[in-house]
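WARN retry 2 of 3 for item q-0093 after timeout on previous attempt; input resubmitted unchanged.
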Amino acid sequence: MPVKEQQLITHWIQQSSFNGTLDRFQHPATVASSQDRERRVAQSPSIVNETQSPTNPPPKRPRNASPTNHSPSPIQKRRKSSKYAPPTTYAHLPKLKDIFTPNLICIFIGTNPGIRTATAGHAYAHPSNLFWRLLHTSGLTDRRCDPSEDVDMPRLYAMGNTNIVERPSKDAAQLSKAEMEDGARVLEAKMRQWKPEAVCIVGKGIWEAVVRAKRGTGVGKGWQYGWQDARDNMGRGGKDKYEGARVFVATSTSGLAVSTGQAEKEAIWKPFGEWVRKRRLERFGQEGEGDYLDELWKGNEELRAENEA
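OK item q-0093 returned
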């Protein structure tokens, strides 16, 4: 065999032996990864070294092109504001009944029933609403009552409940200013009929509607939560010259009202709770839960019979 051909064969044998030795020291995963990568490159010519080739950069998206399908940002996920919805929208839902007896220590005035409340048939029934919790933490009730106990509030705590607008809606934004103001005038008549000592307005927006209906203006600068001026007592007048129910304005308890923190809400509600407990003690000899119905209905037995029929 010629010397040159023999040298080539020897070189080929040495090279194969080296590669075989090298393969023995490679990790199986590395080999598999390399093979998998080769397959992907063969199937997708655009893949080069896991990055775009410098000679073939990715196409640029035009400035006016719509964004790609990314997950929405937190801002995009925010709840959209509601718009006015006519009464027919939720006409299929039942209205919430007023909870009154004569001479209650206080009546709570909410905006209107939400969908969950209207469906349940009990006040402030949505789990996110803080009404029943704030009644407890402020001392208005001895325990955290269930929404189903709303009808027992006069008997248990000498307290009642109503709303400025009776029709249900998803939220207050679906009500018009006109129906809020009309509702304020109806409230005046209700307070004149049932004569509570005080009313607790559950939210500034309700009170703004009441003031607009009374005076045609807003609450003005410097307004504060809490007891309002005696000139704004609700239900004043009538044949017996009722002096009207004192007005305490508290925060909204809706889960959508997040501008005021929990601690601040409790601080605003607490003075009203203290006042109500004091009045129960002065009138009935006890601060907390009891059975006050007979005392409340005293002198109004005929009306009671009609109301409970």
